[in-house]
Known about the structure:
- The structure holds 2 protein chains of 2 kinds.
- By secondary structure, chain A is of the alpha/beta class.
- Chain A folds into 2 domains: about 1-135, no CATH class; about 145-285, no CATH class.
- Chain A has helices at about 1-15, 55-65, 75-85, 135, 145-155, 155-170, 175-180, 210-220, 230-235, 240-255, 280-285; strands at about 20-25, 30-35, 45, 70-75, 95-100, 105-110, 110, 130.
- In chain A, strands 1, 2, 3, 4, 5 and 8 form a 6-stranded mixed β-sheet that branches. In chain A, strands 6-7 form a two-stranded antiparallel ribbon.
- Helices cover about 30% and strands about 20% of the residues of chain B.
- Chain B folds into 2 domains: about 1-200, no CATH class; about 210-330, no CATH class.
- In chain B, strands 3-2-6-7-8-9-1-10 form an 8-stranded mixed β-sheet, with helices on both faces. A 4-stranded antiparallel β-sheet of chain B has the order 5-4-12-11, with no helix packed on it.
- By secondary structure, chain B is α+β, with helices and mostly antiparallel strands.
- Chain B has helices at about 10-15, 55, 90-105, 110-120, 165-175, 185-200, 215-220, 225-230, 235-240, 285-300, 315-320, 325-330; strands spanning about 1-5, 20-25, 30-35, 60-70, 70-75, 85-90, 120-125, 150-155, 160-165, 180, 245-255, 260-265.
- The termini of chain B are far apart.
Amino acid sequence: MNSIKSRALELLSDGTVKRVIGWEKGEGEADWSPALFETAEEMNSFVYGDYAGSNLSKYCLKFNLAEGKTLVVLKPCDTLSFNQLLHEHRLNREKFYIIGAGCKGMKDENGRLLKCNACKGKDFEVYDEIIDDEESRKPLNVFDRMIGVAELEKMTAEERYEFWRGELSRCIRCNACRNVCPACTCVKCVFDNPASGVQSKAPVTDFEENMFHIIRAFHVAGRCTDCGECSRVCPQNIPLHLLNRKFIKDMNELYGDHQAGVGTEERTPLTSYTKEDAEPSVVHERGNA
Amino acid sequence: MRQFPESKVLDIIQSIPCPVYAPVEDGSMVVYGRYEDGMTLRLDKIATDKTPKDILFPQWENLMHFRMEGKTIELTEEKRMEEDYVIFGVRGCDIQAFKVLDKVFLSDPIDTYYAARREHGTIVALACTSMKDTCFCKNFSVDPSQPDADVVLWLIGDDYYCEAYTDKGRALMEKWDTREAEDGPVEWIKGEIDKKYESLPFAHLNLTGFDGEHLMEKFNSPKWKKLSMACLGCGSCTFACPTCQCYDIRDYDSGNGIQRYRCWDSCMYSDFTLMAHGTNRPTQLERYRQRFMHKLVYFPSNNDGMYSCVGCGRCIEKCPMNLNIVKVIKALGEDAK
């Protein structure tokens, strides 16, 4: 996608933007990293293509107050995260120039990314211009993303408990999932605050890390776009996306289909009230479903 | 030199009369765990997901407990390790990491918790007859064909060749069911290991200039900004690193007293070494720089040139954003454009 590179370089050179957030190659073929480009010379190493899997929306927070505009390259699914951050007034739209970049599904050294197997489509929710081609507009072959959740729902409560105990027991509390998550945008996380008394540098019980993930999933419910970055970055291979998808599935069933990050409506199922809303008793009715 | 069939390795491990820590499967990962019947042993795994550092320096451990009764305070110290154990199948890089940890914990004042664990352990190393593209240990004085341990194993064909190098090692190996072996095959495999290493992409990195004399030059490099931009500050690299040894000591109100514990800390975190005035590493740039400056500049300049990177390659595999020490060495080293 040389056209993205040349367009970004053009906008940087003519002063429209002060900097570009994109990707550059690392040591291995698949080792691409998000990168900052501030000069035309630095733009030499700019790349876009098969290994540009990371979601750059979260990095925009770093530049929201920076001088001048920041150009950011966003794939269709990344624009959901960016748009959600706009809804939450965490980003100032005027500060960013968004190139919507066509995407054919991203890969890493192990093949297509898990999140791309549940591709949410090729539409850009927010952009200044789109650079794509015929090939990248074709829909991907995807699996029903709720299959994994449905399998969990089929388990008995005890089986499900054991499943999550097993998976979450590997957590080392590096907080990569939190740090990469575009829905986790507190300036100072309670878990980084020594005065909070809940820093959890060592667990008092072996359930503490388990609770962390469950509570984090609650906190991002309704705002999580299912971008899949949490599972992608987990160094302990914990399938965290399943927790988020369970919430999305439940919300869709209780309040009607909703995709966080779509549209301009700031009210979401969990931040608006209607008389038809599910009553708290629904927990007992659905409890063990 | 002795030898035993590869198929007998479990019998050997099971015959050892004390706890044995070895690479075992844990879900989709391979970690050093205390071997028990039914576990899946994974001696073939290069760069285990978690390192044997965990055995000498656990992620968290209790140090002491305070209890108030009236006007007296009862203080109970945690027991130091008293039981012998074996770490089986450790690779050369991880053994070099033990030496880095020794520099930190065994120099004055000696860390008695660590020292007790070190003393009671016998290390059985495994030479690296296979490697990964992410391996670069020889840059840091590690010999993958001849790890420095109590006992060394070489897997050649269907046999493990083994040799003891210390009294501890000889005492351990004495009880193994092995037979006399010739030195020839081991000499041959060492040559093969050397050849294999030469074909690795990061076999020879230029470390010229990573020393105390170039400290300020490296510290002030404008390249840190770009290098650190993508860093999430997750600390995966520090948790997966066999030499990262920073820790925090905290007190916890256990309801009937105070539990003082120690836990790993990470220079990648915003609250690391936080002081009353705030922090002297306000952004991820400073935190990121600290980690690599420590490994490549501060540590060697304080420890006779010993780097605190051992070239295991785990940070290359684990970083969710594909940042790693090789990238830093290349960007800041003499070969950089």
